[in-house]
Every structure is written in C-alpha cells, then in structure tokens.
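Tokenised fold entry reproduced for everyone:
>
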Amino acid sequence: MKNLNSLNCGLEKPLNIIVGALLFLVGVGFAIVSVTVLPVVGLVVAIPVIGLAIFFVAAPRSKECQVNFS
C-alpha cells in the first residue's frame, strides 16, 4: 500500500504543468483584453500572470520528492 507522500510526489509535476497552462491561458486572455478594451490594466495584470505560469511549469520538484542515492 502506497503512503500519501508517494502519491503526492507522483502528481506534483503534472499538477504544476496544468496550473502553469491554466495561468498562461488567463495571461493570454488578459493580454488580448488589454489590446481591445483596457490597454494599461490588461498588460499590468497579464505580464505577472504569464510570469507565474512560467514559474509553475519550470518549478523544481520539492526536496521531499527527490530521490536520494546515498
């Protein structure tokens, strides 16, 4: 029987990618809105959201989920 920690580690990277993809879509949505409706406000919101998306996709695995070879 697997413990809860091993199950969380197996889902960590796919969940980071899913959250990153959703944030990227929200950021692109704000960027499109900034072009058509709210030029300054949309870009002010879109740039940090796209940055968060990149952070989630590129986030390293937590120390608890790394394999120790010692």
